[in-house]
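Before going further, learn to read the protein records used in this course. Taken together, the tokens spell out the fold as the letters spell out the chain. A record is reproduced here so that you can trace the correspondence yourselves:

***
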Amino acid sequence: MEQLSNRKTLSPATTTIDADAGNTINRIRNTFNKNKGGVLNKQLKYPLVAILMIILSVGFTACKEPPPDDPPVYENILAGTEWKLVHLFDSETNTIKILEPDFVESAYVVLFATDTTVLKATTTNNRYICDYSINYFDSTINFLQCTFMTYAPENYPDALLFFDGLTKMQSFSFTEEELKLFYNDKKNYLLLKRSFIFN
């Protein structure tokens, strides 16, 4: 009888707590089992995939070489300008030659068209209209094609020297008031000054 009297009896409150704890554990277990391979995994799966895609895209962008720069585009500064010949210069003999006739204002004038790469040059009696290419990066200029417009025979042989220098020009240099057109590997050049005879 004494052994029975030493046995502890659980109170109703203790029994209720144990039951609640058991129910909570069961709910957690059931929730985990329901979501195993299901909603929870999907909720974790999509953010992980998104993060992986971001990492890959950033890595690909970092490894991709930047596109090459476009070649520089230079404004045709000579377009719309007019120049009057001063003389021809020969560096080998260190001499200058003033072309005849030097009293005709409209002779030996070079005009660069405004909107196109067309050059017009006048002699005493005739005119040349030439397409040209120009590169301001390395200061090169070349005639591509010329049309000779004849109005009358040339009375002065120097007109041929003028035309010969123009068609053979290879490079140039200029300031606001002076233009040099080099030819014959820079051994010769035409020196021109800014003018406004036709413009």
The domain at 82-194 is CATH 2.40.128.270 (Lipocalin). Residues 37 and 45 are 10 Å apart (CA to CA). Confidence is low (pLDDT under 50) at residues 1-17. The chain has four helices and nine strands.
